[in-house]
């Protein structure tokens, strides 16, 4: 949204960064695997199947780095936590 | 129907309504009709007896929201978390029950605290939203003259002056709240129902967007409209040389993106006396021209009383599904 990307361009950008195809973005099973592998957060996060995976603010750190986009709350977290 | 009631229609009646809907919009607003293949597709969507309809695999769009969470979900941050985890939302929006930037201005620290907490618990983008709500600045609620009373009394100059005064106050409040939310970690700001009080209301939002964009290059800003035509309550206001009164979605998106918005949300109001098929055809006719000139994502407002969706407190699932699919399939827009 902050880069004003239209949908097609945004899907291609994200797929490229995730190392998958734009078709994979529509596949919930593929996306769950990708999100687990890359620490991007999953649904439902509170599932007992993945108790120690990245989620919430942790996931957003990984999303910001992987997609190379500034995420406001991540930057502020770093500042406040003096990271 | 546009009021949410279930109606039985023959295929020929549905076809006629689709054609009448686009013809009504085209004639009234001097817009091109929907193409034959688009009308055929709309007919297929609305003639289907299925309870649910959806886009093809691969055509999924991004969903943004105005105000997510209801009291039944517990606290406001709990509601945002549930919106993500249980509804699978792409984004969510923290909001105050008094959905007006003028009202929120007085409780910004409390909203900031909620936003900060939300950002640490929620993975999807969390926006903050409210309405410019220009009428709130007029008497008896606000300090300026009430143009709704001044206009019928033919005190036109006073009415215009009051609106111009209200614009500056609204801009200050919107910028103050938006910057407060940005400090708290918000991913974006939503100015909802822009133009609800006419062209002055829309101008206030555009000026706020311009100010925020200059100060915060990375702030996501959504401009969501109130209607398909900006009412000329003032009549003479312009933004960068463009008269705002009478702007339709094609003109609305151009000024919004010029101001610095990152998402534009057109809104087309529903006629409750007409069928959903009629309303959808009319809505698509209004919005389609803006897709050719949009340089930013377009997220059409598709909800209670707008975007073809019936005006009902509990909107029928099949109507929401059909309208959502029609918007994506015909307009090829970026989100809803």
Rg of chain A: 14 Å
Contiguous uncertain segments of 5+ residues of chain B = none
Mean pLDDT of chain B: 96
Percentage of β-strand residues of chain A: under 5%
| Widest sheet, order of strands of chain B | 1-2-3-4-7
Task: Give the termini separation of chain B.
Answer: 21 Å
> Could you report the average pLDDT of chain A, rounded to the nearest whole number?
90
Given the C-alpha coordinates, what overall shape of chain B results?
globular
Q: Write the H/E string of chain B, N to C.
A: HHHEHHEHHEHEEEHEHH
β-sheet strand percentage of chain B = 5-15%
Question: Could you explain how this protein is built, in words?
Answer:
- The complex is a heterodimer of chains A (83) and B (336).
- Chain A is built from 4 helices and no strands.
- With 83 residues, chain A is an all-alpha fold.
- Chain A has one domain (7-81).
- The longest helix of chain A has 12 residues, at 7-18.
- Chain A is flat, with a radius of gyration of 14 Å.
- With 336 residues, chain B is α/β, with parallel strands linked by helices.
- Helix content of chain B is 45%, strand content 10%.
- Chain B has 11 helices and 7 strands.
- A 5-stranded parallel β-sheet of chain B has the order 1-2-3-4-7. Chain B has a two-stranded antiparallel sheet with strand order 5-6.
- Chains A and B meet through helix 3 and helix 4 of A and helix 5 of B.
Which helices and strands occur, and which strands form pairs?
The complex is a heterodimer of chains A (83) and B (336).
Chain A: H1 7-18, H2 28-38, H3 57-67, H4 72-81
Chain B: H1 11-29, H2 36-47, H3 76-85, E1 92-100, H4 101-104, H5 108-121, E2 126-131, H6 147-150, H7 156-183, E3 188-194, H8 199-215, E4 220-225, E5 238-239, E6 242-243, H9 249-259, E7 263-265, H10 276-293, H11 317-331
Parallel strand pairs in B: 1-2, 2-3, 3-4, 4-7
Antiparallel strand pairs in B: 5-6
Helix pairs in contact in B: 1-2, 1-10, 2-10, 2-11, 3-5, 5-7, 7-8, 8-9, 9-10, 10-11
């Amino acid at each position: 949204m902050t880069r004003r990307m239209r949908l097609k361009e945004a899907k291609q950008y994200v797929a490229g960064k995730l190392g998958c195809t734009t078709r994979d973005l529509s596949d919930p099973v593929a996306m769950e695997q990708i999100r687990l592998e890359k620490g991007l957060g999953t649904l439902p996060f509170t599932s007992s199947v993945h108790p120690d995976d990245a989620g919430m603010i942790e996931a957003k750190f990984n999303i910001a780095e992987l997609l190379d986009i500034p995420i406001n709350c991540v930057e502020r977290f770093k500042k406040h936590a003096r990271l | 129907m546009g009021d949410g009631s279930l109606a039985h229609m023959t295929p020929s009646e549905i076809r006629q309504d689709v054609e009448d809907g686009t013809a009504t919009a085209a004639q009234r607003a001097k817009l091109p009709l929907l193409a034959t293949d688009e009308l055929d597709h709309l007919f297929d969507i609305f003639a289907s007896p299925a309870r649910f309809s959806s886009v093809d695999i691969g055509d999924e769009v991004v969903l943004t929201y105005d105000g997510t969470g209801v009291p039944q979900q517990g606290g406001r941050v709990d509601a945002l978390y549930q919106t993500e985890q249980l509804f699978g939302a792409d984004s969510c929006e923290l909001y105050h029950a008094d959905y007006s930037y003028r009202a929120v201005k007085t409780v910004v620290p409390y909203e900031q605290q909620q936003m900060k907490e939300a950002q640490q618990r929620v993975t999807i983008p969390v926006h903050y939203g409210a309405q410019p709500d220009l009428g709130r600045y007029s008497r008896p609620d606000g300090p300026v003259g009430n143009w709704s009373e001044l206009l019928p009394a033919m005190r036109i100059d006073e009415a215009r002056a009051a609106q111009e005064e209200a614009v500056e106050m609204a801009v200050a409040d919107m910028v103050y709240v938006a910057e407060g939310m940005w400090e708290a970690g918000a991913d974006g700001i939503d100015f909802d129902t822009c133009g609800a009080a006419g062209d002055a209301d829309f101008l206030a939002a555009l000026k706020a967007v311009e100010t925020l964009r200059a100060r915060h290059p990375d702030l996501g800003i959504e401009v969501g409209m109130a209607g398909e035509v900006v009412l000329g309550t003032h009549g003479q206001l312009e933004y960068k040389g463009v008269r705002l009164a009478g702007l339709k979605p094609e003109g609305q998106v151009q000024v919004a993106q010029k101001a610095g918005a990152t998402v534009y949300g057109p809104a087309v109001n529903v006629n409750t006396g007409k069928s959903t098929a009629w309303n959808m055809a009319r809505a698509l006719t209004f919005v389609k021209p803006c897709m050719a000139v949009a340089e930013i994502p377009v997220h059409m407002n598709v909800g209670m009383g707008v975007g073809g969706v019936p005006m009902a407190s509990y909107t029928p699932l099949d109507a929401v599904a059909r309208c959502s699919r029609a918007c994506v399939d015909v307009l090829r827009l970026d989100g809803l």
